[in-house]
Amino acid sequence: MVSIIKNLVQAVVVSFHKSMPKAFKTSLWLLKIMIPVTFLILILDYSGLLTIMAGWIAPLFVWMGLPGESAFVLLTSIFANIYSAIAVITTVGFTLREATILAVMCLIAHGFIIESAVVRKTGSNVVWIIFLRIAASIFAGIILNLMLPELSGHVGNMSRSAALPFSDALINWGIATFWLCLKIVLLIAGLMFLQRLLDELGVIAALKKPLRPFMGLMGLPQSATFSWVVGNVLGLAYGSAIIIDEVNEGTMTRDEADLLNHHLVVSHSQLEDPLLFAAIGIPIAWMIWPRVLLAILVVWLRKGYNMVMRK
User: Fold this and answer.
1) Cα separation, 53 vs 88, whole angstroms
2) Could you write out the DSSP letters of every residue in 54-115?
3) What secondary structure letter does DSSP report for 150?
4) Which residue in 87, 136, 145 sits closest to 280, CA to CA?
5) Residue 40: pLDDT over 60
6) Please, which residues have CB within 8 angstroms of residue 184's CB and are 6 or more apart in sequence?
């Protein structure tokens, strides 16, 4: 018993010393991207440019069975986050069927400026990843419009509130950014420490065995198991922090990381984000399985493309 406790304490100490410097470096790099991007989003939203851009792409949404206002929801999710998209959905008011299609599209495409920057760090082509997320979002919307049955009810129908003065909007941005920075630092530090500790204790190796058939079905390498779990539970940005570390450590090749990125940009954060939409009445199953199936398709297509290019 004493020996077990001693080994555990040693593993904790070793994991802490190995993970913290890298966690700080990764957090700082991520914040250098996120803070300017979120400020730019504030300017775009406050200036009305988002609304203008939404008007340009509104005609496309006929193919998804959605009204023109949907363009603003999707752009809000792309340039801001899921919370902002939900706020717009509940403000404008959509049928439950329309809101469900929109939710899936937003879950695929949201926040891609920041998230595309982090997947670039592990070897994926950022232009291709941006195109992939937009195309996958549109494809999912079109397919769901063909498949989704009629769903009775509406989601939200509140009147828009007057725009905040810019000073108040700036203060709100500053407060939200502070809490975001704190969350990022704590989560990345915790994740990297947990990864190191689980590796030291042999848990990651044990985890790969039961998940091996599922990873194979998805076309993903066994080395991506832990990063896949993190990406699906906590999201792409935090999953990418682990992927970056594993690539740097040599436990995952850049080609393997690129395959995982192709999966995660379509299907990630399967816990928190769908629950946020479920809170406003959107069926949770329709937000999960279409993204998983589409992500599997994307990975196998990518693997096929890689095989052709190597010949």
Assistant:
1) 15
2) HHHHGGGGGGGT--TTHHHHHHHHHHS-HHHHHHHHHHH-EEHHHHHHHHHHHHHHTTHHHH
3) P
4) 87
5) yes
6) 27, 30, 31, 34, 237
| Single-letter amino acid code for the residue at 37 | V
Mean pLDDT value of segment 246-267? 90
d(Cα 241, Cα 181) in Å, to the nearest integer?
Answer: 14
Q: What is the pLDDT of residues 158-188, one digit of tens each?
A: 444 445 687 887 888 788 778 878 877 887 7
Helix and strand counts by DSSP (H, E) for the chain: 14, 2
Q: How many other C-beta atoms can be found within 10 angstroms of the C-beta atom of residue 85?
A: 28
- Beta carbons of 237 and 30 less than 8 angstroms apart: yes
- Distance separating alpha carbons of residues 262 and 253, to the nearest angstrom: 14
When mean pLDDT is compared over 40-49, 105-114, 228-237, 279-288, the highest value belongs to 279-288
The single-letter code of the amino acid at 276 is L
DSSP-based three-state secondary structure for 197: helix
pLDDT band at 8 (very low <50, low <70, confident <90, very high): confident
Are the CB atoms for 123 and 243 separated by under 8 Å? no
Question: Per-residue confidence at 204, pLDDT binned at 50, 70, 90?
Answer: low
DSSP 250: T
Cα 91 from chain centroid?
24
